[in-house]
User: What shape does this take?
Amino acid sequence: MEKRIIFATGNQDKMREIRMILSDIGIPILSMKEAGITADIVEDGTTFKENAIIKAKTIMELTGDMALADDSGLEIDYLNREPGIFSARYMGEDTSYDIKNRSLIDRLEGVPEEQRTARFVCCIACALPDGRILTSRGTMEGHIGYEIKGSNGFGYDPIFYLPEFGCTSAQLTPEQKNEVSHRGKALREMRRMLEEL
Assistant: This one.
């Protein structure tokens, strides 16, 4: 196995989750920033999986290190699975999640709970220096809530309601969220594959 893994993200919230879940892998995990990499990666895939592979391959080819990347987002069934792969860029990349979340709640005005089904999807790709690509996928099912609630979490967490917990994913502790989250599931599956290498 390689001496380090570079995770193709600059998102510190995401890095915190990743490090918690992969803490026992025994290899340092660096963000692109920590590894001193600046790459403008064009995510022109049509699925979460394709985008994750594009990011992981780009970083592995730039560095020669094992590279991990995730592509994740929110799919709202009533809105034809929007924002989907455009979750981060929905309403423009610099638009705050408060505005994005408020917009999505407004778009679902009057829609009954049984039609507010949604899921977070995470696909993780690992590009190995020998050219092999590993991928994993995790989902977390829930509903879009009626208001913004909670301050743990980030992104769309404050509007993502989990019926089994009776709260949004932004109201869970980080430990609870990692147990059930799309990213937690995909990372644990990826960890299992890496341990078998």
